[in-house]
Amino acid sequence: MKKLSLLVLVLIFACGGKLKAEEKPNIVFILIDDMGWKDVGFMGSEFYETPNIDKLADKGMRFTQAYANAANCAPTRSCILSGQYTPRHGVYTVGNSNRGKAQLRRLLAYENSLSISLDKITIAEALKPAGYVSAAIGKWHVGNTPQEQGFDFGIDRDEMGYKGHLKEGAAYLADSLTDIAINFIEKNNPKETGKPFFVYLAHHSVHTPIQAKEGYSKKYEKKEGVGCQSQAEYAAMVQSVDESVARINNSLEELGLSENTILIFFSDNGGHGTYTCQRPLRGGKGMYYEGGIREPMFVYWPGTVKAGTSCGQPVISTDFYPTFLKLAGAETPQNYTLDGADITPLFRGKNSLKREPLFWYFPAYLQAYSGLTDESRDPAFRTRPVSVIRDGDWKLLLFHEEWSLDGGREKISTNNSVELYNLKKDISETTNLANIETKKRDELLEKLFRLQEKTGASIVNNPNPKYKSE
Ligand SMILES: [Ca+2]
Q1: What confidence score (pLDDT) does residue 23 get?
Q2: Most buried one in 1, 31, 50, 237, CB count within 10 A?
Q3: Cα 375 to the chain's mean position, in Å?
Q4: Among the three residues 318, 353, 388, which one is the final residue of a domain in this structure?
Q5: Ligand 1 mean position to 205 CA, how many Å?
Q6: Is residue 267 within 8 Å of 50, Cβ to Cβ?
Q7: Nearest residue to 100 (alpha-carbon basis) of 366, 463, 373
Q8: The pLDDT of residue 66 is above 60
C-alpha cells in the first residue's frame, strides 16, 4: 500500500497530475460526408449494409442525438476544426449565401466566409503542445491547407488526381484515403515514436456525385428498397465507407493500438434528399429539421468505453474540440473561446451533462433540390435564414424573414416566425407548438437571443430589392 501511494505521489509530482505520453490515447476521427442519421444499420437502416460499422457501434457507445453544427458541409467542418459556432468564424454555408431564385428571397443573406481564418486555433494546433502528431486526410473544404492550420500532414482528393470518387485505372477514393490513413498510422506508431496521433479522416463519400465502386451496386439493384431507402449506387457508397472503417480498425488491432485509441464515427450533415431519407426524422441535407442535422455517431474505445451502450444526450460537433483536449490532457488555448462541452463524462457512462442549450445559426438561403420538398418549410428552399435552439426536449426555430419583415415579437402569434417542437413526443417535427406552449416558446426565445448575443450573431434584416411579392 505504502509503495503504491508513494508511486502515485511521485507520478503526480512528476507530471503535475497530467497524462504521460504513453497514457494519452490516439484519436481517430472518421467523418463521413452527407451520411444521414439513418443511413447505417446500427441506426435502423434495413437497406444499406454496414456490418463492420454496426459491429464497432455494438462494441462501443452509440449516440442517438448527435448533431452537426450545420446542415451542409463547410460550416460543420469549420465548427469541428475551430471549436466555435458559425457566427464566430463566419463560415455559414458552402459558396454563395444567396442561393435560389432572387425574386423569392425576401432578405439579403449575410456574406459567407469560404475559409477559417488563420488566427483561429484549430484542434490540431491545440493538440500539438500535448505532443500529438496529426493528419487531415480527405475532404478539407475550409480554405488554406491543413498544414497551414496546424496539421503535420494533409492531403485531399485533388492532389491525388481524382475526379469525384473515381480515378482512371479503377482506384476508388474511399479506398485510397483509407490506404493513406493506415500508412500514416503505421508510420506514426506511438510505440516507436513515443507520440500519440490524431487522425482526421474525412471521406468524400457519400457526397455527390453518386458513384459506386465497380461491381458494388449490383447487389443492391437486386434488393428491394426498404421504406424510402432504395438507391443502389448510394448503398454501394455506404458499403465502401463500411469497408474503410473495418480496415482502419483492423490496422489498429494489428498494431496492438486498439485499447489506447479512441475511434469516433460521425457525419457532417444529413443525407441528400434526392438519394436517401431519414424517416422518422423530417428533412435532409440543407434543412434545419432533424433529418438535416442529426447524425449517426458511435465511439469505440475497447476497455474504456463500455460495450453495448447507448447515449441519448444531445451532443453537437463543437463538442469534439474540448473533448479531444480533455482526452489528451491538453490545455484550452489561452484567450480562445470554445463553444462546445467536454463529453468525456458521457463516455464513462454518465447520463447527463450540465451544459448550455445547443445553438445553430444560418443567415443564408439554400435552394430546393429534387426530393423531400414536401418536408421543408416551403418547396422553393431547403432553408431560408434561420436560428435554432435545442434545450432539453424542446427545439425552437426562428425564421428571420418573418421576424424581420412581418412584425417580429409583436406579431408572433400570427406571423409564423417561430416553430416550436417537443422532440421527445414529436421526433418528426409535425406539430408546431409555438402558439400553444407560449411560455416555453418565450423561454427558448430568450435563451436563443442570449446565445446570439454571446456569439455575435444577429437576425438578418436587410430587405432584398429583387424580391417580388405575389
Ligand atoms: Ca456534407
Answers
A1: 83
A2: 237
A3: 21
A4: 353
A5: 9
A6: no
A7: 366
A8: yes
